[in-house]
Write a structure and sequence with these properties.
The chain has 385 residues and is α/β, with parallel strands linked by helices. Helices cover 41% and strands 22% of the residues. The structure holds iron/sulfur cluster.
Length: 385
């Protein structure tokens, strides 16, 4: 469908819950399902997309994100089928950002060509580290050299917008080994980099062996965070969100929607949506998701109405993740409230401590503030983060 005037913007997230094997730290909903399960899921997903699209008739979709799991497990053809279902069901903007997460161990050159033809214009590689020993400790299925070849295939296939995910705080990782990873990867000049600190989650292999893991201490992790910020700034990247860096103008539009508290619809088991004044999540189970969609039901596990108070707290929580922070004017336009006045005491405290910065009517977290953002944000927004 062609773009129409005056439509509200919408993002679409699609969860592909398939992985060849589980990484030791991962608590996302995914697993190694059979080819028949994958085919049945794709079929249901397309049905679900067609069924829900009319509820978003007043919206123009300007970002699509296929995440997981490992979307590239369904191959270029599977991704093209989803892209086609979206383009015939929703109003897509002419310049829609269409991102697909790719595991370097599951992507072939032919898949990249097929994705490109299907309209995918952004690839997000989950690399995590340039050291094979660290990749092995995470149970990643690829080596650094396999990543390099997948990255070069993506460039050859014509992708000019590539993100690379990295992790710090890994078992046996040092500040030097992380610096080496950041330097090697930034030398490839991807348009975007995401850097996440490892979190040990219950229910994962790492969670079960947490007492035996040799992890960098808190000071080293902080050093890694600041060192990466310095290296990437010097390499021309803007640290535009706590965990994200982009070349000028290459910020991820889809993720910016989350942080701008704009609407999005999710499809697939465990996918969340923020749409029509509600936040809701689908059941994190492939079989139950498929059964519900086949029965013509919505596989909703959780749903809540967003009150005005929630909206305000969420906006503070999300916007303070961004380097652009919160401006009094934007805040007033959204909530009819003077942000600086209402939160004066807390803002003054964090400015005094050097955690928050204030530039005319804009309030934002500096490097140190971004590192301790959870504590600061939950204090200001009075929200559990
Ligand atoms: S590839 Fe990604 S989604 Fe799959 S297990 Fe590893 S971290 Fe989790």
């Amino acid at each position: 469908m062609s773009e129409k005037q005056n439509k509200k913007r919408l993002g679409i997230y699609i969860h592909i819950p398939f992985c060849k094997s589980k990484c030791a730290y991962c608590d996302f909903y995914s697993g190694n399902f059979s080819a028949a399960d994958r085919e049945e899921y794709l079929f249901c997903l397309v049905e679900h997309i067609k069924r829900l699209a009319p509820t978003a008739d007043d919206y123009a979709v300007d970002s699509i994100f296929l995440g997981g799991g490992t979307p590239t497990v369904i191959g270029g053809e599977g991704i093209a089928r989803i892209g086609e279902a979206l383009s015939i069901s929703f109003h897509l903007s002419r310049d829609t950002e269409f991102s697909v997460e790719a595991n370097p161990g599951t992507v072939e050159r032919a898949d990249l060509d097929t994705m490109k033809r299907a309209g995918v214009n952004r690839i997000s590689f989950g690399l995590q580290s340039s050291h094979d020993s660290e990749l092995k400790a995470l149970s990643r299925i690829h080596s650094y050299s396999e990543f390099l070849s997948a990255y070069s295939d993506a460039r050859d296939a014509g992708f000019d917008n590539i993100n690379i995910d990295l992790m710090y705080g890994l078992p046996d990782q040092t500040v030097d080994s992380f610096a080496e990873t950041v330097e090697r990867v930034s030398a490839l000049s991807p348009e975007h980099l995401s850097l996440y600190g490892l979190k040990i989650e219950d229910g994962t292999p790492f969670g079960r062996m947490r007492d035996r893991l040799v992890l960098p201490d808190e000071d080293s992790e902080y050093e890694m965070y600041l060192m990466a910020a310095d290296l990437l700034r010097a390499a021309g990247y803007r640290h535009y969100e706590i965990s994200n860096y982009a070349k000028p103008g290459q910020e991820c539009r889809h993720n910016l929607k989350y942080w701008d508290a704009l609407e999005y619809i999710g499809f697939g088991p465990s996918a969340y949506s923020y749409f029509g004044g509600r936040r809701y999540g689908y059941i994190g189970d492939l079989t139950e998701y498929i059964a519900a969609v086949k029965a013509g039901c919505e596989p909703i596990e959780y749903s809540e109405e967003i009150t005005e108070k929630d909206r305000e707290a969420e906006y503070i929580m999300l916007r303070l993740r961004l380097r652009d922070g919160i401006t009094r004017g934007d805040f007033y336009d959204r909530f009819g409230i003077d942000f600086a006045e209402k939160y004066r005491e807390k803002l003054s405290k964090y400015i005094f401590l050097g955690i928050m910065e204030n530039d005319r009517d804009r309030y934002y977290l500096g490097d140190r503030g971004m590192y301790v953002s959870n504590t600061v944000i939950s204090d200001i927004a009075e929200f559990d983060v």
